[in-house]
Amino acid sequence: MEKTALSATLLVLGCLGVSWVHADSLSAPLNVTIKELKVNSALVAWDISEGDPVIGFAITQQKKDVHMLRFIQEVNTTTHSCALWELEEDTEYIVHVQSISPSGTSPPSEPVLFRTPKEAEKMASTSPDEVMIEQVGQTAQLRAGELIIIVVVLIMWAGVIALFCRQYDIIKDNEPNNNKDKAKNSSECSTPEHPTGGLLRSKV
């Protein structure tokens, strides 16, 4: 019985040892960088070693000099980036990335330290070219709106003029008929009536 229990214990330890070897053989993510850094958000990106059976990632996010951690984990994905949200402005953060395989997780990557900018710094960092492009876009939109208004007004005026011309043509066409009716009525009124009969009276 003791030999059986010892064999079972060694078997369990051997299996655990194999699983730890597989997990340790998984390389840590490489080239971890912070992109699209904003006041309240950022994007962390990384690379993985070719051939690693990676099925997901795990990210630990921590404020510098603060022990509270945020843990982000996602599996069944091949993406090499993750958005960090709800960050505080003008605050330093430390980020580690780990790869996840069917047999376990990789060692953590080298820590990446970054600081979120202030709102004023973000506004000041906007280049003049970006401001000029934005102003040009707004100007183009205003001009387009003005052109649309002008075209609508011209169409309305064209419709009013066409309606006026149509009414004028109708009135003009009706004038000869009205003149003929007036002439006929005037001729009838000027023709004297001839008596067909009556009594002649004489003075006695």
From TrEMBL:
Q: What membrane topology does the UniProt entry give?
A: Single-pass membrane protein
What spans are recorded as compositionally biased (Basic and acidic residues)?
Answer: 175-185
Q: Where are the transmembrane segments?
A: 147-165
Q: Which subcellular locations apply to this protein?
A: Membrane; Secreted
Keywords of the record, alphabetical order, are: Glycoprotein, Membrane, Secreted, Signal, Transmembrane, Transmembrane helix
Q: Name one GO cellular component term.
A: extracellular region
Q: Does the keyword DNA damage apply?
A: no
Q: Which PROSITE patterns match?
A: FN3, PROKAR_LIPOPROTEIN
- Span of the signal peptide: 1-23
The record's region (Disordered) falls at 175-204
Q: Where is the Fibronectin type-III domain?
A: 28-119
Q: What is its main location?
A: membrane
Task: Give the matching PANTHER family.
Answer: FIBRONECTIN TYPE III DOMAIN-CONTAINING PROTEIN, FIBRONECTIN TYPE III DOMAIN-CONTAINING PROTEIN 5
What name does this protein carry?
A: Fibronectin type-III domain-containing protein
Q: What is the lineage of its organism?
A: Eukaryota, Metazoa, Chordata, Craniata, Vertebrata
